[in-house]
């Protein structure tokens, strides 16, 4: 083998090794820039005692990264009965992989409600302004961690016509952080 050919093969092997290492490094970095948002719903006792069932369908969750645009996330039309979610009970809406960073808020879009009062009659439940329920609570998405955001809302009586509106309960929102690698948990209220 000639000296030139040996030098070429050595150079080619070095380039291949460097490229492989570079690609492996890129793949490792990509996973470190995302975390999981676990969105849950709970119901603070309000006028919920008026109901036999109060099913809300969550279609979309919206979040806004502090230095970015609001992002809509498909919640798959998750139906939840708020009567079953009183006290410390909560139910999973959906989990999402998100970019790491600080998020300014979380919104829950309720696309449908189906409610039956304790006396067996139907109830009308509306979302104020047909807008998503907005929770002005900042939270972080951390690399390789799960952030659990529990949004709390409840139906409240709107006048004497048997109508109710869903209202966010800001002081009942909780955010918890859990490492995907360890059992450590951090909770903020």
Automatic annotation (TrEMBL):
Domain annotation DUF4382: ranges: 34-168
InterPro entries: DUF4382 (IPR025491), TAT_signal (IPR006311)
Organism, scientific name: Haloferax sulfurifontis ATCC BAA-897
Entry coiled-coil feature ranges: none
Protein name according to UniProt: DUF4382 domain-containing protein
Pfam families: DUF4382
């Amino acid at each position: 083998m000639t000296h030139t050919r040996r030098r070429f093969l050595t150079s080619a092997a070095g380039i291949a090794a460097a490229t492989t290492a570079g690609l492996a490094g890129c793949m490792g970095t990509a996973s470190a820039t995302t975390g999981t948002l676990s969105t849950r719903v709970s119901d603070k006792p309000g006028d919920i005692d008026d109901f036999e069932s109060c099913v809300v369908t969550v279609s979309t969750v919206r979040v806004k990264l502090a230095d970015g645009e609001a992002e809509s996330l498909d919640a798959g039309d998750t139906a939840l009965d708020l009567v079953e979610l009183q006290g410390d009970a909560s139910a999973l809406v959906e989990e999402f992989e998100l970019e790491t960073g600080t998020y300014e808020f979380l919104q829950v879009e309720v696309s449908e409600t189906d409610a039956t009062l304790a006396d067996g009659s139907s109830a009308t439940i509306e979302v104020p302004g047909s807008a998503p329920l907005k929770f002005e609570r900042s939270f972080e998405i951390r690399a390789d961690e799960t952030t659990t955001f529990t949004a709390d809302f409840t139906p409240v009586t709107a006048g004497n016509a048997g109508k109710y509106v869903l209202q966010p309960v800001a002081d009942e929102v909780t955010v918890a952080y859990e490492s995907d690698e360890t059992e450590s948990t951090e909770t903020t209220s």
